[in-house]
Amino acid sequence: MFDLVHQWVIRQLTLGEFSSPRAVVTKAAFMAAKIAIFAYLLNIVGHLILVALGLLPYPLGPALVVATMLTPPVSFIVAVIAYSVVGLAIYDLGMSRQRFEMLSRTDMLSGLMNRRAFLDTFEQARGHVALIVFDIDRFKSINDALGHKAGDDVIVRVAQCFTDVLGEGATVARIGGEEFAVLLSGPRSDGALDVAEAIRQTVEDLGFEVAGRRISVSVSAGVSEGVAGLGFSELFSGADRALYLAKASGRNRIVHAKQLVEASLDASYPADGHAEASASRLSA
Predict the structure, then answer these.
(1) What is the C-alpha to C-alpha distance for residues 43 and 36, in angstroms, rounded to an integer?
(2) pLDDT (mean) for 60-82
(3) Does 3.30.70.270 match the CATH number of domain 115-283?
(4) Does the keyword Membrane apply (predicted)?
(5) Which of 226, 232, 260, 256 is nearest to 173 (CA)?
(6) Least enclosed by CB within 10 Å: which of 47, 49, 154, 244?
(7) How far is CA 46 from the centre of its chain?
(8) Is the dihedral of CA 58, 60, 62, 65 positive or negative?
(9) 232 vs 110, 151, 194, CA distance in Å?
């Protein structure tokens, strides 16, 4: 019996989480109404016990009238205030936690996912997926010629191109200085090359004016497809090698990992070392 009462009291006192301040007030009013009713019943029972014991110093009728007029409103007001204060504190803590979680998973410069968030999303993926790795062409020369502020502006504008093509909520991240990654899953993964080409074309068509100087910006990309269960490193390795081939072939182009077996790569290309080093660096 005690355990049942204890569990009931805990359920009544537990506020839970709230989606808005209005939800806090609504919950507080509901809980306060129950407390007011409970307090009123206790007051009546207390008076009846005092009457039975002959200890009530005044007539029962007027005493119940006073109890009816004072106990419910006073207990309701006190409970509403108390629950609202605690509930709003819980709401503020929840919002702060959400903001902190969002900041910990967001690249502050581009506004896209960061590496950690991207890898977490990949771990949750199932079935057929496509991974596209992008790199801004000749980015170092932009930084050297126009300064790092100009380079940051280019990253922001390119990131916006990803959002324009893929839409809000897409799995796209900035995973390095000028490197981005896109994860496509399900039916959409079958059109990975089309998506990559749409992004490449959008960046190429976008006019960049940095520090009063108009410059051309382009991106190259490598595409790799497979089953998510095979692991990130394997897919990234294929996409990274394809990206290297796109760069070596003149930049501003898309290469699929399937083309690697058809291409005769330059002997200077480290077929395993570059991709494995990049994958291990990204997964770290």
Answers:
(1) 10
(2) 84
(3) yes
(4) yes
(5) 232
(6) 49
(7) 53
(8) positive
(9) 23, 29, 22
H or E element in which residue 263 lies:
none
Q: Where are the alpha helices (DSSP H) in the chain?
A: 2-13, 21-53, 60-104, 115-124, 139-146, 148-166, 192-205, 232-248, 273-283
Residue 267's pLDDT band (cuts 50, 70, 90): very low
d(CA 31, CA 13): 8
Asked if residue 245 lies in contact with residue 259, where contact means CB atoms within 8 angstroms, the answer is: yes
The b-or-e profile of 87-102 (16+ CB within 10 A means b, else e) is beeebeeeeeeeeeee
Rounded Cα gap, residues 1 and 171, in angstroms: 52
Taking only the tens place, the pLDDT of each residue in 110-134 is 999 999 999 999 999 999 999 999 9
Q: Give residue limits of the domains in the chain.
A: 2-104, 115-283
Q: What is the value of pTM for the model shown?
A: 0.64
Dihedral angle sign, alpha carbons of residues 78, 80, 86, 88: negative
The catalytic site residues sit at 178
Question: To which residue do tokens 């990992």 refer?
Answer: 257
Helix (H, G, I), strand (E, B) or coil at 195: helix
